[in-house]
Design goal:
Layout (H helix, E strand, L loop, with lengths): L1 E2 L5 E2 L4 E6 L8 H4 L3 E7 L8 H11 L8 E6 L5 H20 L12 H21 L7
Antiparallel strand pairs: 1-2, 3-4, 4-5
Amino acid sequence: MIPVTRRIVLQDDEIEENFIRASGPGGQNVNKVSSAVQIRFDARNSPSLPDEVFERLVRIAGKRMTREGVIVITAQRFRSQERNREDAVERLVEMIREATVRPVIRRETKPTYGSKQRRLESKTKRGQVKSLRQNKPGYD
């Protein structure tokens, strides 16, 4: 079991792992050992995720989510399979945690009377400063 929050816990069988060869530099090891990991998590059919969390997860995952609702994360930062596996699962958990946070709904507010007065006073002062800069006829 992988704990995400107090209410959301992912079962180990919900995450499918495939070990693949990592790209990039790595010497002789890169051609022999499949140290990179690709995890797949079927978010759409997961019994652990509430619908509202899934909806936010679609937006957060972006191109990492397929049309079928499967999140695919590839990790190849480290040289060992185990560290890459932990890294991928950690990134998935962090993504789901981010999706659990409900966005704050902005409520419209009206400006206070004092803020309106201050705004008008500053506009008046600014206009006076600009009028003093003008070349008025007869003052040469």
